Amino acid sequence: AEENKISLCYHPGLLETAISTANNDPVEEAREYSAIILMNLAYAEEVKEHMVNQDHLLDTLLHLLYDVSPFTRRYASAALFTLACVYANTSLIASHCSGGILEALRRVLLNDPVDEARINAAEALFNLARNNAQGTVEI
């Protein structure tokens, strides 16, 4: 299963399509399923750095953290939690949109009615702080 995630992540157009759907589809379930795709791919250790450097991925996850669907917020926070496990990603995530992801994770942690979304947000913030990259500390 892990090797399938790697193949899918590098498949031409797959990430771009999931990102586009997550940002542009008016149907709540389509955004939710896109968030599931992004989360599942992010769990593959070998693609975490590739994903964070993918055009618009961090913008998309930030956007999804504000989605009306609690499930979508849960999956987006889980994707960020696992992407933040990699030291090289922490500065990019923390500094993205001048700390916008940090603020969105803080908001989910404090206000989201879904326990798992709050737990994921807390774990993402913990991973960002734990890795303590210079860029993360400067924020």
Spell out the key features of this protein.
0% strand; mainly alpha; 76% helix
Topology, please?
Blueprint: H1 2-10, H2 14-24, H3 28-42, H4 48-52, H5 57-65, H6 70-83, H7 87-95, H8 100-111, H9 115-131, H10 134-138
Helix pairs in contact: 2-3, 2-5, 3-6, 5-6, 5-8, 6-9, 7-9, 8-9
Describe it for me?
- This protein has 139 residues and is an all-alpha fold.
- Helix content is 76%, strand content 0%.
- The chain is built from ten helices and no strands.
- It has helices spanning 2-10, 14-24, 28-42, 48-52, 57-65, 70-83, 87-95, 100-111, 115-131, 134-138.
- Helix 2 (14-24) packs parallel to helix 5, helix 7 crosses helix 9 and helix 8 packs across helix 9.
- The mean pLDDT is 91.
Instruction: Indicate the structural class.
Output: mainly alpha
Quote the beta fraction.
under 5%
Distance from first to last alpha carbon: 36 Å
Order of SSEs, N→C?
A: HHHHHHHHHH
Number of strands: 0
Radius of gyration based on Cα positions: 14 Å
What's the overall geometry? globular
Low-confidence sequence ranges: none
